[in-house]
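Title: Prediction job returns without error message
Component: structure pipeline
Severity: low
Priority: P3
Assignee: unassigned

Description:
Job completed but the reporter wants confirmation the result is attached to the right record. Sequence as submitted:
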Amino acid sequence: MLDAPCSFNFGGFRFGFPEGFGCSAIDATIQVDGEPVVVSIQRSDVPEEANLAGAFAEAVKALQPLYGNVRVIRQYETLLAGNAALALDFHFRVGFEERHGRLIGSIVPVADQNERQWLSVGCVIDSEKPALKTWLLDFDVMLEGMTAP
């Protein structure tokens, strides 16, 4: 991870934040064949003594206030930007409708510094929608292409 100004591309427009502005979270709703997918990216400082399992447990605990009763489907080891990561697939309800979420988190080094940061990437979908049947596979492929600077 770089300690650099944050920027993103939106419909071909590049939004770049000035030097000194830190970006700690991005929440975006994207459309896949007209169906919404919520994607979240977060970064934060972690104490020197923090480990992946503890940081991930805190991130999972933070899902409860957002989504209510979260049912864990599976938790597994993976990689995120070339770093050891943990992932969680979970279900929750919005009214009577079921939603599927995925959270992937890692502790990553900050380039050229003796620091580490928490990086998490997640998504929420209505997996019953035909247009989203392969989304989680597409999401995984997208994350596999994410590399550290």
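Comment from assignee: result matches the submitted record. The longest strand covers residues 97-109.
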